[in-house]
Amino acid sequence: MAEEINISWINRKKFMKTFILLTILLVFFSTITFWYVNKIKGVLSYEEEMYLKEVSLQRSHAFSTKIKSRVEALNDLSVELMYDVSFDINKKVELLRGKKDKDNYIALGIADISGNYLGIGGRRLNISKEKGFKVAMSGKDYVSEPFLDKGRSLEVMTYYSPLIKDGKVVGVLTGAKDVESISKSLFTSFLNGNGHSFVINKKGDILFEDSKIYSILDLDKLRSSGTILKELGISSLQGKSVISGVKKISLERGDVHIAYTTIEGVNDWILVSVAPSSIVEKRAVDITKYNLIMYFTICIILFIFTIYIFVSKKRANKIYQKLAYTDYLTGISNYNGFVRDAEKNIAKKSGTWAMIYFDIGSFKVINDMFGHKYGDKLLKEIAKILKGMFGNETIYGRFSNDFFGILFKVPEEEDEPLVTDDISMYAELLGHIRDGQVFNPSYTNLKITHIVSEIEKKINSIKIEGQPHIDLLMAYGVCTTVSDKGISDDIKSVINMANMARITVKGSYQRRLAFFNEAIRQDLIDEQNIEKEIVRALENNEFQVYYQPKYELSTEGMVGAEALIRWIHPVKGLIRPDKFIPIAERTGFIIPIGRFVLRSVCESIKEWERKNYKLVPISVNFSRAEMYQSDFIDKAIETITENEVNPELIEIELTESAALNDVEFATNTIMGFKNFGVKVSIDDFGTGYSCLSYLKSMPIDILKIDRSFITDIEENDKGKNIVEAIIGLAKSLNLSVVSEGVETESQTNFLKKVGCDLVQGYAFNRPMPKDDFEDLMK
Question: Which CATH superfamily is domain 529-777 in?
Answer without folding.
Answer: EAL domain (3.20.20.450)
